[in-house]
């Protein structure tokens, strides 16, 4: 482990090491990742505060791509510029990506059946229940501290529960922003403590948006001009990453239709890799590494790396293109009010997903409830770090379930 002096001198290295740790222990899917981020980066390291974190989460819910990975990249960007953004992505993605590519190389011997239904995996889901519940309560104290914003939170929660789709989630945030103008909500002034300071120029942001569009238009042309498994793979995966809202579960049918089926990959092999990806920490988009390694026979590792870059790249380009404008708009009074409402809506959205699927899928009986409650109590009443809580829940699941 690098010493503190080296980390101060190379902040991107610090970002990489922190996110590498998160990539090794962040089980439970995108919403759970937000809980792990908040514990590690807001509570323990104070890299940003809850208002800034809420702004980033709200923005990434509006953008196509893997929202939790985009949140991590945005925090890395604010912390250490573009190198920090790349370091956050690499650290968070690397552990699961290595496992997924290795699984593709050994898919004949391994499969999803080997890990489904095991007690330790269920224990990991219960750790996610506790982490997300703590994050929702803590963020509610900061982002919904008064009656009008509590009303907004409950309205967003209700809408997200009644319409549990990516479209419903977006509408819940829009509802929060709209209700802020109907209720006596006052957005906190974006002073130096709450404003996001993004070390990017408008020229860089504009260039990033141009590159995003160029990928959508140019990659199909490239695949047509140079037909082959690798160009078709990159084109299909990039397009899927550009058009999906809501994370890895939503991108599944797009990847099967755009990449797996045209390449002749059978449905069982596709689902085996997807099932394994759900058992791993880190982003579910790492499944693209498995898919690329399976599809590109001449060089599976190259195919896996190319697919990983292609699926994350559009979301990253959009983030770079939009985040500087988002941070600068915080000084406008009516936008501050809208952001305050959206932040309250974020709490409601996280609360809805805490119930379904985190609690609904994770807690299926009394033993599961007991483990989740014990983990939640430990987080709320002690200073137990999440990186110890996660293996403890896995061990409890292995022994009890």
What structural category characterises the helix and strand content? mainly alpha
Shape: globular
Oligomer state of the chains in this structure: single chain
| Count of folded domains | 1
CA(first)-CA(last) distance: 35 Å
Characterize the main sheet.
none
- Provide mean pLDDT, rounded: 83
Task: Provide the low-confidence segments as ranges.
Answer: 111-116
Number of helices: 17
Strand content: under 5%
SSE topology string: HHHHHHHHHHHHHHHHH
Give Rg in angstroms: 21 Å
Binned, the helix content reads: over 70%
Give the strand tally. Answer: 0
Describe this structure in words.
With 401 residues, this protein is mainly α. It has one domain. 76% of the residues lie in helices and 0% in strands. It has helices at 4-9, 11-25, 30-43, 50-62, 67-105, 119-143, 147-162, 166-179, 202-225, 229-243, 248-260, 267-278, 287-295, 300-328, 333-362, 366-381, 386-400. It starts with a helix and ends with a helix. Mean pLDDT is 83; it is low at 111-116.
Question: Short description, anyone?
Answer:
With 401 residues, this protein is an all-alpha fold. It has helices at residues 4-9, 11-25, 30-43, 50-62, 67-105, 119-143, 147-162, 166-179, 202-225, 229-243, 248-260, 267-278, 287-295, 300-328, 333-362, 366-381, 386-400.
Which tags fit this structure?
globular; mainly alpha; single chain; 401 residues; 0% strand; 76% helix
List the helices and strands and how they pair.
Elements lengths: L3 H6 L1 H15 L4 H14 L6 H13 L4 H39 L13 H25 L3 H16 L3 H14 L22 H24 L3 H15 L4 H13 L6 H12 L8 H9 L4 H29 L4 H30 L3 H16 L4 H15 L1
